[in-house]
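Our consortium's second objective concerns turning raw sequence data into structural hypotheses that experimental partners can test. To show how far this objective has progressed, the report includes one record in full. It was chosen at random from the queue rather than selected for favorable results. The single chain below, 222 residues long, was entered without modification.
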Amino acid sequence: GMIYRFDQSYRIICGIDKIRVFHSQRFKAKNCIMLFDPRNEFIKKSLRTSVRFFKGNSPSFPAATMDIFPTLAEVAGLPAASMLQPQDGQSLRPLFERELGPRRRPIGFRSAVRGALVDNEFKLYSKNVSKGDFELYHLGDDPAEKEDVRAKHPEVAQRLRKAFQKWNATVDASVAGKDYPSGKVDSRQPPRIFWTDLEAYRPYFREWRNRPEYQGRLKGKK
């Protein structure tokens, strides 16, 4: 199921509780994993106060969508050979039982010309990777990312810049197909289509146009 339209914190909590009750009644709360993917800071903060792991934990461990498959693979008992290398993500299965402390492997991100690397409390960010200009933010002290702290932490900025460049090279190799046994991406990639261009979503445009997160996307759309 999917919780839709998180406008107030109580809706988040009630929506999560409804899913929990449904799974408890339908599947007897066994062998079920619920994934929450909040896309803004308000929802993240609300979830931190309302969601707990199976044994009452509310971990602070940084994670990303790249960790989903390794986690499910470990839960399902899949062999290590099922994981194509290199592997950016890591299994979060141990978090079901205990806190893990700092994340050892940074979380890399690249979209078009932008790039970022999150290493626990620090985030390296570039609006244009090819220009080599990077900013550094301390997410613990500055979650809104308003202050560039490269001057305060030059050694961290240098370390993360080198780490990002190394990771970015592996992304280029993957795009070129070098991670695959055949040496190329086997299947042709379909053309990119954004959801605002799909007819299936068009009936909802009028309602969604009033939602702040969609106003820019739906401007001029009929």
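The partners drew two points from this record. Residues 1-16, 40-56 have pLDDT under 50 and may be disordered. The two ends are 28 Å apart (CA to CA). Both points have been shared with the crystallography group to help prioritize constructs.
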